[in-house]
Amino acid sequence: MDLGINGRWAIVCAASQGLGKGCAIALAREGVNLVINSRRQEALEAVAEELRRMNAAIEVRAIAGDIGDPATRQALLSAVPQVDILINNNGGPPPGDFRDWSRDDWIAALDANMLAPIALIQACVDGMAERGFGRIVNITSSAVKAPIDVLGLSNGARSGLTGFVAGTARQSRLASRNVTINNLLPGSFDTQRLRGNIERAATKAGRDAEEVAGDRAAAIPAGRFGKPEEFGDVCAFLCSQQAAYMTGQNVLLDGGAYPGTF
């Protein structure tokens, strides 16, 4: 299927590995020019070169830095002729007990996972509306639908972003101008972050990491962890011409792990 986005320009945040990289790869295959971001310059440049080899017809620009820093966001926006597609993505805050979190911990979580993506949305939507095309996908978490007790910082910040999107996406001056905003909620995907979490859990429990991984995968109805490339493919569809009538939605990709009807 031709997604109708060849030649568009996209910003993809946290694209040096994992789900962000999966999204960048899927968009590159569709002929989308990319401005990619992550904190690590060397890793980011390696991904940029990989994307250029994958599709020599596209332009790929790499801007390293923390997306929570206004200067980094401005550098991203300055590197792109126009933003047709925005993929908001950032690492989540650490787990813990809410009794131990200070105000600074909460502000850091809100800055990274709510306020930074909102700032990029704010910077892009009016231009998208003027041109009559815009796709924004926020990578959040399945914990938005099924909160995890030790991830209270993430639950709060990402739920705040979800509430903001629910109202903003439905503004007629955006939706009627072919600008969509949707959230993509990953469950357990086979990324370095997941493997690191499993290794820490295994060490704490005195178990083998592969054994722990097997138990976690078996608990998912699909019987496995998701692949970053299949996550990227769904993201690319949400950015397509075909998805123009879909906005303000929370799309859950978790292999059936969430047990609810709604």
From TrEMBL:
UniProt cross-references to SUPFAM superfamilies, sorted A to Z: NAD(P)-binding Rossmann-fold domains
Stretches assigned to coiled coil: none
Organism: Salinicola lusitanus
Pfam families, per database record: adh_short_C2
CDD domains, sorted: BKR_like_SDR_like
PANTHER family on file: 3-OXOACYL-(ACYL-CARRIER-PROTEIN) REDUCTASE, NADPH-DEPENDENT REDUCTASE BACG
InterPro entries according to UniProt: NAD(P)-bd_dom_sf, SDR, SDR_fam
Family: Belongs to the short-chain dehydrogenases/reductases (SDR) family.
Protein name listed in UniProt: SDR family oxidoreductase
